[in-house]
Design goal:
- With 506 residues, this protein is of the alpha+beta class.
- It folds into two domains: 258 residues, Uridine Diphospho-n-acetylenolpyruvylglucosamine Reductase, domain 3; 226 residues, Vanillyl-alcohol Oxidase, Chain A, domain 3 (3-Layer(aba) Sandwich), CATH 3.40.462.
- It contains 15 helices and 24 strands.
- An eight-stranded antiparallel beta sheet has the order 18-15-17-16-21-22-20-24. Strands 7-8-13-10-11-12 form a six-stranded mixed beta sheet, sandwiched between helices. Strands 1-4-6-5 form a four-stranded mixed beta sheet, covered by helices on one side.
- α7 packs across α8 and α10 packs across α11.
- The longest helix is centred in the N-terminal third of the chain and has 16 residues.
- Bound molecules: flavin-adenine dinucleotide.
- Flavin-adenine dinucleotide (FAD) binds next to β5, α3, β13 and α7.
């Protein structure tokens, strides 16, 4: 009888990409879309991978072990870590575009040809490449492309698509492996997509429930192993990117309103599809041109070389990665170097067009980098940014605020769940104890000012129920209730972790 191929490494030290988390899991398993042994069936390509995930969950429960899905290991928080079984899902990267009518619920009103079934380990780069050659693209992504789709969605990865939201906001269905190795298809009751016959064909239990879907979609590995997601891809378009530098005072008002009229952007008063501001907190006076405004307009597609996979890391494309380069040789000098680094890396650009897969391309991960990111309501953005600048000027550290905007998320614990628009403030910094201290000072300052804020689950955060509740309020209980409704006690334990316990969520 054929069994799914799973390769094991035992007692191996695992580290995340930026070296902020290190752990020795009991086993680190790679799961493959491959059968081994006699009697191989001819089913779908993804079937062995699903069988592998199911077998691992059953094994974890039998051994009273914890189990967690691992994507690209890009999270700076320990969200993906466990001392039990860590499941490397990257080999599970099957992607399929287009659904037959028989697989769809009659209420589905979208474009069946654009429906994309992506296995959990498909990376953002793989998705961009796959979709682009078929005339489609992702509706939005983060600034770069190394995450897996399941990993990205699970922590609420976002870019600055204020009209769309974060990556979880375009997900329509979740195929989850839960306790006992059972598998289910979760979608919203208010937005059914697949037909019961589709679920029967893949052997999954169909669960239609808005509260469950909204909780599960951003659940950082705690609702089971995500085998696949379903989303509607967007017809391919171009993004025309510009970057201009100006005084902080000039951009300040727009940070809380998104009224860009006074900024003299190339499109005038039109709010660009992507609007992002990096601030040098040590150069906020008049004449110091401490604000770097990067913006992108959506344009109709025309053939271009600037497509997914064609971009390597280029200057200014990912503010988080650049400090890692410097920290290798001069960590203590970074605050002094910030101005020349920022001005070199965020050099002016005028109207460079490329596909989204090109604009949000590769990031070269180097050095010991730390990052934290908070979400606030749009109206609170100026006060929150002022808090960060204030802390930096009282306690110099190598970080700086990178500010982006997304439509508020419906996901219960998304850190962007501010309606109608969330402002995200990322603090990419060189890794050091001083940076950690600075993050704590920023969180304390925000709270002292009475600003409600949330923390990105995939970035460094204060792991503490009281602080999480400060940001999310009653949503924490809603999320816990949804988790209990899906998983029995055994499953809740299996899909828990020390980190989840520290957060007061498991
Ligand atoms: C260079 C760099 C740039 C970044 N840029 C951005 C950005 O622009 N915007 C932004 O919002 N964030 C950004 N981040 C953060 C990053 O997007 C998130 O941390 C994201 O979750 C990482 O995805 P991953 O595939 O690496 O998942 P991992 O870090 O491996 O895992 C993340 C979470 O997902 C869970 N998970 C993964 N796969 C599964 C699965 N199959 N089933 C169940 N759970 C699973 C893990 O258990 C974990 O809880 C960046 C990080 C780096 C290092």
């Amino acid at each position: 009888m054929a069994s799914p191929l799973i390769t094991l490494r035992e007692n191996t030290i695992w580290e995340n990409k930026h070296g902020t988390v290190s752990i020795t899991p009991r086993s680190l398993c790679d799961v493959w879309n491959t059968w081994v042994g006699p009697g191989v069936s001819n089913g779908p390509i993804w079937r062995p991978g699903l069988a592998g995930l199911r077998a691992l969950v059953a094994q974890a429960e039998a051994q009273n072990q914890r189990i967690r899905g691992l994507g690209g290991a890009w999270s700076l928080s320990p969200a993906a870590a466990t001392h039990g079984i860590m499941v490397n899902t990257k080999p599970l990267n099957y992607i399929e575009l287009g659904f037959r009518d028989a697989s769809l619920d009659t209420a589905f009103s979208g474009n069946p040809d654009a429906l994309c079934f992506a296995q959990c380990g498909a990376s953002v780069l793989e998705l961009y490449q796959y979709l682009e050659v078929r005339g489609y693209t992702l509706p939005t992504s983060g600034a770069s492309n190394g995450q897996t789709i399941a990993g990205a969605v699970s922590t609420g990865t976002h870019g600055s698509a204020h009209s769309i939201g974060s990556m979880q906001d375009y997900i329509l269905g979740l195929h989850m492996v839960i306790d006992g190795g059972r598998h289910c298809w979760i979608e919203r009751a208010s937005k059914p997509v697949v037909s019961p016959s589709f679920c029967q064909a893949i052997g999954a239990e169909l669960l239609r429930d808005d509260a469950l879907f909204n909780a599960a979609v951003v659940s950082f590995g705690s609702f089971g192993l995500m085998h696949a997601v379903l989303f509607e891809a967007e017809p391919l378009f171009l993004l025309e990117k510009s970057l201009v530098r100006m005084d902080y005072a000039r951009v300040q008002a727009a940070l809380g309103t998104l009224d860009v009229e006074a900024l003299d952007l190339s499109g005038g008063r039109e709010l660009p599809f992507h609007f992002e501001v990096v601030v040098n907190p040590y150069r906020v006076s008049r004449g110091q041109r401490g604000a770097y405004v990067r913006y992108m307009y959506k344009r109709p597609y025309r053939p271009t070389q600037a497509s997914a996979g064609g971009s390597t890391w280029v200057q200014g494309d990912d503010v988080m990665t650049m400090l890692g380069t410097v920290t290798g040789w001069t960590p203590h000098l970074v605050p002094v170097l910030l101005e020349p680094i920022l001005s070199a890396q965020l050099a002016p650009v005028q109207g460079v067009a490329g596909t989204p897969g090109f604009q949000f391309g590769a990031a070269d991960l180097r050095g010991y980098v730390m990052s934290s990111e908070i979400g606030v309501a749009l109206a609170d953005a100026p006060n929150a940014i002022d808090a960060v600048i204030d802390v930096a000027n009282r306690f110099h550290w190598s970080g700086f605020p990178a500010i982006r905007y997304v439509k508020g998320s419906d996901a219960t614990l998304a850190f962007t769940n501010f309606s109608p628009t969330a402002c995200t403030i990322e603090l990419p910094s060189a890794g050091s104890p001083r940076t950690l201290e600075a993050f704590h000072r920023v969180w304390d300052e925000l709270r002292a000012r009475g600003i409600r804020f949330t923390m990105h689950w995939g970035q460094m955060m204060r792991e503490n129920r009281e602080w999480i509740e400060y940001g999310h309020g009653a949503r924490v209980e809603e999320w816990l209730a949804a988790r209990q409704s899906l998983l029995g006690a055994t499953g809740q334990r299996a899909f828990g972790s020390d980190w989840l316990t520290a957060c007061g969520l498991g």
